[in-house]
From TrEMBL, chains A, B, C, D:
Organism: Natrarchaeobaculum aegyptiacum
Cofactor(s) this protein cannot do without: Zn(2+)
Record-given protein name: Ribonuclease J
Gene3D superfamilies for the chain: Metallo-hydrolase/oxidoreductase, Ribonuclease Z/Hydroxyacylglutathione hydrolase-like
PANTHER family per record: RIBONUCLEASE J
Amino acid sequence: MEIEIATIGGYEEVGRQMTAVRAGNDVVIFDMGLNLSQVLIHDNVETERMHSLDLIDMGAIPDDRVMSDLEGDVQAIVPTHGHLDHIGAISKLAHRYNAPIVATPFTIELVKQQIEGEQKFGVENDLIKMDAGDSMTIGDHGVELEFVNVTHSIIDAINPVLHTPEGAIVYGLDKRMDHSPVLGDPIDMKRFREIGREDEGVLCYIEDCTNANKKGRTPSERVAREHLRDVLYSMEDYDGGIVATTFSSHISRVTSLVEFAEDIGRQPVLLGRSMEKYSGTAERLDFVDFPSDLGMFGHRKSVDRTFKRIMNEGKEDYLPVVTGHQGEPRAMLTRMARGETPYELDDGDKVVFSARVIPEPTNEGQRYQAEKLLSMQGARVYDDIHVSGHLNQEGHYEMLDALQPQHVIPAHQDLKGLSGYVNLCESEGYKMDRDVHVSRNGNLIQLVD
Amino acid sequence: MEIEIATIGGYEEVGRQMTAVRAGNDVVIFDMGLNLSQVLIHDNVETERMHSLDLIDMGAIPDDRVMSDLEGDVQAIVPTHGHLDHIGAISKLAHRYNAPIVATPFTIELVKQQIEGEQKFGVENDLIKMDAGDSMTIGDHGVELEFVNVTHSIIDAINPVLHTPEGAIVYGLDKRMDHSPVLGDPIDMKRFREIGREDEGVLCYIEDCTNANKKGRTPSERVAREHLRDVLYSMEDYDGGIVATTFSSHISRVTSLVEFAEDIGRQPVLLGRSMEKYSGTAERLDFVDFPSDLGMFGHRKSVDRTFKRIMNEGKEDYLPVVTGHQGEPRAMLTRMARGETPYELDDGDKVVFSARVIPEPTNEGQRYQAEKLLSMQGARVYDDIHVSGHLNQEGHYEMLDALQPQHVIPAHQDLKGLSGYVNLCESEGYKMDRDVHVSRNGNLIQLVD
Amino acid sequence: MEIEIATIGGYEEVGRQMTAVRAGNDVVIFDMGLNLSQVLIHDNVETERMHSLDLIDMGAIPDDRVMSDLEGDVQAIVPTHGHLDHIGAISKLAHRYNAPIVATPFTIELVKQQIEGEQKFGVENDLIKMDAGDSMTIGDHGVELEFVNVTHSIIDAINPVLHTPEGAIVYGLDKRMDHSPVLGDPIDMKRFREIGREDEGVLCYIEDCTNANKKGRTPSERVAREHLRDVLYSMEDYDGGIVATTFSSHISRVTSLVEFAEDIGRQPVLLGRSMEKYSGTAERLDFVDFPSDLGMFGHRKSVDRTFKRIMNEGKEDYLPVVTGHQGEPRAMLTRMARGETPYELDDGDKVVFSARVIPEPTNEGQRYQAEKLLSMQGARVYDDIHVSGHLNQEGHYEMLDALQPQHVIPAHQDLKGLSGYVNLCESEGYKMDRDVHVSRNGNLIQLVD
Amino acid sequence: MEIEIATIGGYEEVGRQMTAVRAGNDVVIFDMGLNLSQVLIHDNVETERMHSLDLIDMGAIPDDRVMSDLEGDVQAIVPTHGHLDHIGAISKLAHRYNAPIVATPFTIELVKQQIEGEQKFGVENDLIKMDAGDSMTIGDHGVELEFVNVTHSIIDAINPVLHTPEGAIVYGLDKRMDHSPVLGDPIDMKRFREIGREDEGVLCYIEDCTNANKKGRTPSERVAREHLRDVLYSMEDYDGGIVATTFSSHISRVTSLVEFAEDIGRQPVLLGRSMEKYSGTAERLDFVDFPSDLGMFGHRKSVDRTFKRIMNEGKEDYLPVVTGHQGEPRAMLTRMARGETPYELDDGDKVVFSARVIPEPTNEGQRYQAEKLLSMQGARVYDDIHVSGHLNQEGHYEMLDALQPQHVIPAHQDLKGLSGYVNLCESEGYKMDRDVHVSRNGNLIQLVD
């Protein structure tokens, strides 16, 4: 059976992930993501109303024209998890393919919301939920799609595996190797090792190289949680305001914040549009068991009303968890820093960033400004209480060891960023151009012909 | 009562700490440390045989000549904990003073060993043990010395407090604010807050500014422990060699390593001269309850014999914890990296650095070389599994809040390094030259006259 | 005669410089500057209409209330050169003092423009021009004010020296030691050495510590000029667009750009409001001899008209020198990068930044965005073609050697930034608190009483 | 005619360069270099006595076994210039090939010395001198070898061009684009542009990617010279010791040092083994016209004798130019720093590093130690007076523009280091794997078959 891989997006950057695998006549697409930074560099761009071609020109969504060179039928579009760089282009591209979108329940729900917000295209692909551990048949020639449970900075993430007669194709984006996650199950390394050994073994492994140049092992979410606990417990006796911020989609982290807020005698409340969106969705789908009275508010008006209530009842009884961990100009924490909300910061109030600045000068500048404005109001800043959601080098090493793939394809980075992964592979006996395929957006790699 | 403070050493650098406080006619000396880097920059210097004056000229030990300007009698020499930069000059300077050395039991034991190794001077000062929480009277005019329990990267650390009729002098070196340490009691913040409120309050606080330019809060040792657990547990299935290194004097960390080694089915063994020294001392003094069969070997011969045994019986059953976390040329791990020991590293063997590189180009160069040599043998390196033993800015903020001192004196850094502390104090209403005293080695500060 | 120094602004930051020296009953004020970054952190602040007290509260201008503690009459306000951090608060503070403003002709002209733009206060102090090398008498007790020629990144900069019966007070802000400047005379080291030896010598030297932590020697403007020449000459054969940007007030640099533009067969044209202002002023005052047909346009309309003309006549014949070297959102180059001007960038067009990014995250973020937008249009970026206008450590060393001052006061930095200067002084035999006075905003230092 | 390229060494690192080009049956080898850092990481390795295979195993010299897969006869070995990473393996590998070594006169002389120092192998290949601008015929099928003059940090550097019926192969290592070098002719861009247009144009360009991730344009040596002049002239009045160090093989820089030493009234003298070697060779071959009385001393004894003479006659009359710019433990400057030579440093003496630290932790550590030891003796350090010898991105851009090659092969870097070059090429319309060939050591690339 011919096996061909189209590396469509995310092979020259982090963002706008998209990869297609053809097994004989059947094609499966993994991820359709958005590169938000290519949008934000421009002023006043509203993606909801834009045409795909303009977004492709901007480098914001994958240029999927190479799909016409793949001779086969798309049988499924499979986003691995709900982050924008993996689902954000579905509303712009999926309608071109006559295929269902298959994903885990939480991801499907986020895809649904994405499609509902779209104002240019009507996207009517079927949405099919499949859980980690489950499989489905693709086409009529013995190809099977399996979801293996992985751990990432969002819940319900999986690595899809396409079992073909020629061996398995493991699509490894995005994950860290977490044996003690805070929500959900540990990464299913047992299954990966089985896949490495069974049948034809692994024909090809496509790897998440986000942290390919970072040494060591990405710590478990449990470590971030202990760090966060240590920080919040240390504030137990403080009787002023405490505010926290984190990635809205990072439900485990939000859960920890909510839990520790209660431990130190404060009522947590989630504020900001995306904070409400992700946590609300996770709660409705029973991924998390928040306290029944946990407030979540997204609209500016209800947020400000909540802030007023907090000011009236006493800041010392609340712990708002807000958007704005990167100092985004319009996020809630930045508004607080600029004094644009009813929440007043006093000398000694604590602001906890359970996030790391994404290392890019624009973010760094914005975050710096937010922190400076917070400090000018007397706030005390606690930052970097975080662990990455992506494998570092030793995770990559362990995955190679478990899967023993014939071919590897580094993804989710530019050339500089993935260089460490090539070095690792070569130290393990692979060789670039022979079985390590450093690809670019829009390339086709024929593995079996 | 006149109160005067002599900032003798460690006010222009990290290392060779020494401070004297005169209350009326009674003088207490806090710390007598060694600045090891001033020794190591020279080739082949043997401090054991050197005269104090030469070591003073080298900037290696405090220049205590200013003591002749302090009119009073030295009643006690009080090292706060057993690190070399706090006790390393006792064998060169203490014999000049007719006063006992007063310290906690673990520190006293290390001082004793220090004195026994000295080959130039005979040091015959009395050694008096006093526990955290206890007090003793100094002189005849109502001055009292109290030990408050603190948490640091070595066990049995205290902050001495000199209670005088004019208020308390709190000598704050070295600590982090740890509410959940792995060994020993949490920092006694309750007592610090009492001292801040009782009687005359705090006249002066001398602060450990090592991390004064670092944001946020130093995590608890518990966080490093969870990180370390995560790393070692992830290696549970590995059936080759695993080697770890950390600060020899960091008994909590060594304890965690020993414990996790056993958890993953390996026999821990401590190797290297200082590894044996510190852990052996801690065990003899009952600070730690190591497994009864834990091997500790210091002499090169017995270390190599142990390595041979490990190679014979199977690397997969052992976890050597060795010296060499900074890549020191003569330490055990560096010898292993150079292939100079019987322990053979194989492809995939793990080396765990539970330490951070001390950020100075010499260390960075040596550590880089050690890691490169290890990698050339196929070892996989895990580094930076560590938390600092010193307060960051938010710890400084909390100490000021607890003690409410009239005066503060930043210590344990150079001017650049302590600048963040001055900024913090000024944001809290203090003012440089009025009540924040940025001092230099050899200065006298008269607080009450 | 009593000598007292008030360190009013710029002793805890770079920006809002202000220092007063009292000699007996006569007071001279050096500099009254604005800290622009404290303004820009807020959205939509218009300083022209603001009251001094609000600007003081913002940390934008010096808090001159300490002046009431100086018992004497202000005889002169002496800005050293025309940069905003030295003259930008004159329009807000000078009217409080019944004293003339004394400065070199170029500086006086910029002060005049500053005052004319002021919309809140009427500033009616006399403006007195005095050239480098000249002196004037201050009061009736033998005090004299001398201007010594120095070299900086703006023309007509001086260091004022106040000769008193107790020795000279040398106010050393801002300068580099340039023996081969492009415009104007070399720094007058001969005069500094004389002042160091004559009469009572130098009682006090107030030093520009901007680069106190930088090693070596700041290169001459001649070196930047050679670098710039090398860059522009290398483009001689390019037949598309070339654009350059630099500090508008850096007349020597603008001169070099103009000259090299002509050398490679292009017509230079200066564009942007502050570009027109500074270059126009320098030309009117005969500090520079630009080509008679050199266009300078400040208003957006005339700039855009010029761009249109350039596009019509051929980009290959022009070299626009524009504002925007830091990526400032509203500057000309940023507008070009956003495609908001009639000038169209093509693949291969060159953009030359004859400036260094001011190392602060906000600037770095903005500059990064500007460069990214330029690159997205195909532009090739040449950056960092620059030398600093401030002394590095070896310049400080030479100044100490020349002046042999009894006292030194580091200025123009925060504590961290000036730390290298204190270290240097102490290596030369000074001692902090004895004759090195690390001060803070609002302090008084009594040198002779 | 078949054209094939073997990328033998220097495609995964900087160092041990070696590339072979086969045109039909004729093979030309470009460079045979040594990666010194792979030697120095080990203690006490003497390469002179080592076998090639051991050096290959160490990664110190190219693994040329792939040459057996190249079906053709080696007609010439062509080192491009005299740096060790380009000629250092000739004494270990050249004897395996029955072919002459063809190079420019200065390079040939250095190769000869290299061969004479070899103690393991007898190397008896013919040594043929060919000047820049000249050509020679290779084999009998219309292949020609041309030397194009380039500019680098060593004199007499060329880029060899192999003219084949299929187009030219331009081997672009190592160069910067210097239109105003201090010694020798400017880079021959006119010839490169001709080659780009004539006949079949350029089939393949192999590029020096050392600085591929650096923005802008590498300045001319003229800029470094002006910088150096500025530094040395600023010391004209100093009447103590001045010492300078630079790359021994950097004859232009040494020439500038010699010239400026005389300008400021000091007698230059060159000290250290490799200082004598390179400058002596350059002088003997008439590449430079040193003052007739310029002393050059290599042996430690004669160096120390010279130092004694300088101390006797007065340091203020001399300017020793010594080895040791990277703080190498056994170099002359390091010996001076450790007080191991008769030259005594006094307070205020100047040490000029006309070199940049090679950014690798080992170098950085050694250089830091050397500087610290110098400072401890009171020396004032001037560093970083240097420009790189390699093209930055805009030089790469210009070369692509001049040559318009069909294929490009990035070399002289690891994958991370060359990533910027791939990005540049792709922005110019090339595409990785199609016409940008990112290769690895030991690969064959068939361009025409």
